[in-house]
Amino acid sequence: MYYIVAKNVSKYFSNTKAVENISFSLKEGERLILLGPNGAGKSTLLRLLSGILRPDTGYIEILGNKTVPYNSEINRYVSFLGENYALYDNLSVIDNLIFFGTLYDIEKEEIIERAKEILSRLDAIEFINRKVGELSRGTKQKIAICRALLNKPKVLLLDEPTAFLDPHATDELHSVIEEADATIVYATQRFDELHKMKGKIMLLDHGRKKAYGSLEQILSSIKDINVEIYLLNEKKLLLRRWNFIQKRNKINAKLKSASEIPELIEDIVKEGGKILSVSYLRESISNEWVVK
């Protein structure tokens, strides 16, 4: 049985093609990574899969049932972590999680037990009785991740879940996701995450599927790419082989192919740089590239 089926799915906003003619299918436990820069259509596709948006053409099936019309029984087994936190700032962390857990008909005791388990793994258990509005963006993201995992979903839709997370929390999140007994669609613009995840990758740009396959196939298919790299330190780098601009802990590099990313990372590490993230940029930040 296919847990997710998307067939010739398109979505338009006025004259803008947000998603155009996307098709794929996933069986139980399979994972799909949506890779692309901002504006590629990743978030729109996830919202279509979640049932928040209706496709203008084509159809989507989740657990064997079409997402239109809305089916509350299906959505009991689906969790969607979107771009915002979808939490109540005036409620405590645990009260938020109890509220959302009861929407899935989970007993209060089980919600609390499950919440403590997940929050502990994400180093957020100390905030369990704090109001959400008092928390940092990174901590709010951890709470939102916990909310998405409470119901032990069969289908898990994640839109850049590592945004605002520190490296330790990012690694722990990947471990939690890897252990989840779910079919997962995971959107990211970060190349460094691709090495930490299993599954096929779909490369999106301007709403269209540009490539689909393994990590090696995807990297070799992306030509003339600009990447943005954030460092944990502000180590001034030479990187004599590369065209790049560095401003404090941010590096913008222009590559002939995405397959060069591992070599660039290796050179950065050799010079003492500690990498936080490597992200996909559609356009150059500046035309003033440093040619070494």
Quickly describe the structure:
The protein is α/β, with parallel strands linked by helices and 292 residues long.
At the fold tier of CATH, the topology name of the largest domain is: Rossmann fold
Low-confidence stretches: 283-292
CATH superfamily of the largest domain: P-loop containing nucleotide triphosphate hydrolases
**CATH architecture call of the largest domain:** 3-Layer(aba) Sandwich
Helix and strand sequence:
EEEHEEHEHHHEHEHEEHEEEHE
CATH class group of the largest domain: Alpha Beta
Shape: globular
How many domains make up the 3D coordinates?
A: 2
Task: Provide the descriptors you would attach to this structure in a database record.
Rossmann fold; 6-stranded mixed sheet; alpha/beta; 14 strands; 4-stranded antiparallel sheet; Alpha-Beta Plaits; globular; 292 residues; disordered C terminus
Give structural notes.
This protein is α/β, with parallel strands linked by helices. The chain has two domains: 218 residues, P-loop containing nucleotide triphosphate hydrolases (Rossmann fold); 59 residues, Alpha-Beta Plaits, CATH 3.30.70. It has nine helices and 14 strands. The strands form three sheets. Strands 6-7-8-3-9-10 form a six-stranded mixed sheet, sandwiched between helices. Strands 2-1-4-5 form a four-stranded antiparallel sheet, covered by helices on one side.
Write the layout of secondary structure elements.
Elements: E1 2-13, E2 16-27, E3 31-35, H1 42-50, E4 57-62, E5 65-66, H2 72-75, E6 78-81, H3 93-103, H4 108-121, H5 137-149, E7 155-159, H6 167-179, E8 183-188, H7 191-194, E9 200-205, E10 208-213, H8 215-221, E11 223-231, E12 243-247, E13 250-257, H9 261-270, E14 275-281
Parallel strand pairs: 3-8, 3-9, 6-7, 7-8
Antiparallel strand pairs: 1-2, 1-4, 4-5, 9-10, 11-13, 11-14, 12-13
Helix pairs in contact: 3-4
